[in-house]
Write a structure and sequence with these properties.
single chain; 793 residues; alpha/beta; Ferritin; Kinesin; 3 domains; 9-stranded mixed β-sheet; 3-stranded antiparallel β-sheet; disordered N terminus
Length: 793
């Protein structure tokens, strides 16, 4: 047994079994036989490694038994020493062993080369012997023909008629031999043509398959282009709607948009031309396929005719052999009757007829081959034309791709410019903006439309921005950023704040809150009626816009994560409207101990972000999830009945949506916050008729609203100390009122003459808010991972 290399680690039996089980049975058997042969060769080498250098490899007979495969030779050439770098002795032993194996392999290669040379010599010798035999047979045939001529001469002397017939038979025999030679030559030429036809057909089939694959790839690319064009059209239409409000100051953006539209129209024209070219290429491919099928059928017919010709040739050979046998018999027995000679002549005539028919068939086949050659030339020309068309289409596709890349770049630049201009316009309009909305007269008000105390001036300056209130015969005019009369719909109101909602996605803090007396339409403005699509409020419409815009921006690489929270401030206490542990909120007589010991304290960090400890924050991904959360919050909110409203909100409702956006292409990160607040109604105790718990609720509401008024007054006078901590409401709104947020207030009015005093108070408070100035809004463009639930210690 040869010694095993000590430097090679042994293989585990489990690994060996796993390797054997993974190899198929046939391949395993081949590998085992090859390994056995290799082991035999290496055993011969290892047994003789102590001998001289001349006998290291072994004798030629022993190496002749060894066989190597291509994989084994590659493994042997790529084998590297596995010994330690510092163990020179083991390394030398491994190198000597590898050299011995290589010598065995070289010896085997030399032996294989010698065997090949010997086989080539044997083949040459066999070819020469076959040629000699052919020449000998030809000489013998000539000798036999001369003997036949001598025999025919002797027979002519015996009878003249027999000599003439014999001479005719010899001449006809020679003609038959020549015909057979020509038929053989024609058959060889036909087979060569058939082989060439097969090769050309295979080439044409490969070209047709490649053309089909290219056509399918082009179709997929055109579909992608069409989808991308539709997305570009949608985004272009969105840009047009967004830029209608600031068209005068965005002429540059409109020019870029017009160029993009022209590029899209040119892309559509190119797309139509490409579709036409595709239809033409498909038609040419169909024609090529039809031609191929017809050629295949014609080749099949030619094969059948060739088979018939071969069978006829075999029959003729058999007939010639029978005729030669009969001639031999005739030479042996010259005394046969003339009837046999007549039979021979008739047979020869039949042979002539068959030879003529075969010649005609060969001529027809040659004509058919010529027609097939012409068809193949036409097919090759059509294939070359399709190739050129495909190359042109590739060039067009590359040009379209370049144009699309340019259009995408222009769209990104336009989007960045739009965001910049949009934010500058909002800053120029004022940090705290005030909108006024007057609800229509209701049947419960008990007065007609002519008794309304609210009117709208029609001057150019005050159109759409002014509102006049009549009280005790005196007129009080007010001016705001926007005034909505009683005919304004929910959509009209939302259009004016849609740009502010977009700022939340751009990374700004946005706050919108509704202020007004009880029954003035604050909850209708903020929430509306979610079941009726036309009467949805600002909160559901804003959320729909945010989700739609975030989905459209995903094409530009933006990914958004949104978290929602809802709370109410009831009697100066914070209550979580999304907490599952809370009991039903319909009973307003519950105590503060029902909150299960949670302390909802308000915290502000250095970045101006507001966090409420222990408040439930829910990840939202769609508008349906938000709708269900809003329903849950509406059921949990504190409401009650007063003399001014059947279902009055007895708490301040705060909805917060935190928006985190990441752009994977530009690696830009933004973080925006949207606060939508429905304040409780301000009312006088003399009109509300509140007693008991309702009295406490009214006092708490009026106290928080008066604290809000104090904060606004301090901000307007630019005092050093702003009393944000006087109320939970003002402390919660501190980043919106005195920070870097974009804030909008809706003042809601009732046209009822009995509410003129309350409406005047609301308008005066709104005028103070409109005159207030706060800091410049900041955009948070870097994601800052902060825990939404800070420790309350």
């Amino acid at each position: 047994m040869p010694p095993r290399n000590q430097n090679r680690p042994p293989r585990s039996p489990s690994a060996k079994k796993e390797c054997v089980n993974t190899i198929p049975f046939d391949k395993r058997r081949k590998l085992e036989t090859a390994a056995a042969v290799r082991r035999q060769a290496f055993a011969v080498v290892n047994n003789k490694q102590d001998g001289s250098s001349n006998t290291d490899v072994g004798s030629t007979e022993e190496c002749g038994k060894v066989e190597f495969t291509k994989e084994e030779i590659e493994v042997l050439l790529n084998e590297k020493p596995k010994a330690n770098k510092f163990d020179s002795k083991a390394k030398i032993e491994q190198m000597t062993e590898l050299i011995k194996r290589l010598k065995v392999c070289v010896k085997w290669f030399q032996q294989v080369a010698d065997n090949n040379l010997q086989e080539n010599n044997n083949l040459r010798i066999s070819l020469e012997s076959a040629q000699k035999r052919c020449t000998e047979t030809e000489v013998e045939m000539k000798c036999k023909e001369e003997e036949f001529n001598v025999a025919f001469a002797q027979l002519r002397e015996n009878s003249a008629s027999l000599q003439i017939r014999l001479a005719n038979e010899v001449s006809e025999k020679e003609e038959a031999i020549n015909c057979h030679k020509r038929e053989n030559e024609a058959r060889v030429a036909a087979e060569k043509l058939q082989v060439s036809l097969r090769e050309e057909l295979e080439k044409s089939q490969q070209e047709i398959i490649a053309a089909k694959q290219k056509a399918t790839s082009l179709e997929d690319m055109y579909k992608r282009l069409q989808e991308y064009n539709t997305s570009l059209q949608q985004y272009n239409s969105k840009l047009q709607t967004d830029l209608e409000a600031v068209r005068e100051s965005l002429n540059r953006v409109e020019k870029e948009k017009s160029t993009i539209v022209e590029n899209l129209s040119t892309l559509r024209g190119h797309y139509k031309s490409l579709q036409d070219q595709l239809t033409l290429s498909r038609a040419s491919q169909d024609e090529a396929v039809n031609q191929k099928e017809s050629l295949v059928s014609e080749v099949k017919c030619l094969r059948g005719e060739l088979q018939q010709v071969r069978e006829d040739r075999d029959r003729q050979v058999a007939l010639v052999q029978s005729l030669t046998a009969e001639i031999v018999k005739y030479q042996e027995s010259t005394g046969k009757s003339c009837q046999e000679l007549d039979n021979m002549t008739t047979k020869i005539k039949c042979l002539e007829e068959t030879c003529s028919s075969q010649r005609e068939q060969i001529r027809i086949m040659e004509c058919q081959l010529a027609v097939l050659n012409e068809k193949l030339k036409v097919a090759s020309l059509s294939a070359s034309e399709t190739k050129t068309e495909f190359q042109e289409q590739r060039k067009l596709v590359h040009e379209l791709q370049d144009r699309l890349a340019d259009a995408e770049h222009q769209l990104l630049e336009g989007e960045m410019l739009r965001k910049k201009l949009h934010n500058t316009i909002l800053e120029l309009k004022g940090n705290i903006r005030v909108f006024c909305r007057v609800r229509p007269l209701l049947p419960d008000d008990g007065v007609g439309a002519e008794a309304s105390v609210i009117s709208y001036p029609t001057s150019v300056e005050a159109l759409g921005r002014g509102v006049d209130l009549m009280q005790s015969g005196q007129k009080y005019p007010f001016m705001f950023d926007k005034v909505f009369n009683h005919e304004a719909s929910q959509q009209d109101v939302f259009v004016e704040i849609s740009q502010l909602i977009q700022s939340a996605l751009d990374g700004y803090k946005v706050c919108i809150f509704a202020y007004g007396q009880t029954g003035s339409g604050k909850t209708y403005t903020m929430m509306g009626r979610p079941d009726a699509p036309g009467e949805k409020g600002l909160i559901p419409r804003s959320l729909e816009q945010i989700f739609q815009t975030s989905q459209s921006l995903s094409a530009q690489g933006w990914k958004y994560k949104m978290q929602a929270s809802m709370l109410e401030i009831y009697n100066e206490n914070i209550r979580d409207l999304l907490s599952l542990s809370r009991s039903s909120c319909s009973d307003l007589t519950r105590t503060e101990n029902a909150i299960a010991g949670k302390q909802y304290s308000i915290k502000h960090d250095q970045n101006g972000n507001t966090h409420v400890c222990d408040l439930a924050i829910v990840d939202v991904c769609s508008i349906t999830e938000i709708s269900s959360l809003l329903k849950q919050a509406a059921q949990s909110r504190s409401v009650g009945k007063t003399q001014m409203n059947e279902q009055s909100s007895r708490s301040h409702f705060v909805f917060t949506l935190r928006i985190s956006g990441v752009n994977e292409s530009t690696e830009q990160q933004v973080q925006g916050v949207l606060n939508l607040i429905d304040l409780a109604g301000s009312e006088r105790l003399s009109r509300s008729g509140a007693t008991g718990d309702r009295l406490k609720e009214t006092q708490a509401i009026n106290k928080s609203l008066s604290a809000l008024s104090d904060v606004i007054m301090a901000l307007a006078k630019k005092e050093d100390h702003i009393p944000f901590r006087n109320s939970k409401l003002t402390y919660l709104l501190q980043p919106c009122l005195g920070g870097d947020s974009k804030t909008l207030m809706f003042v809601n009015l009732s046209p009822d003459p009995s509410s003129a005093g309350e409406s005047l108070c609301s308008l005066r408070f709104a005028a103070k808010v409109n005159a207030c100035e706060i800091g410049i809004p900041r955009r948070q463009t870097v994601m800052k991972l902060a825990d939404s639930r800070l420790s309350c210690s």
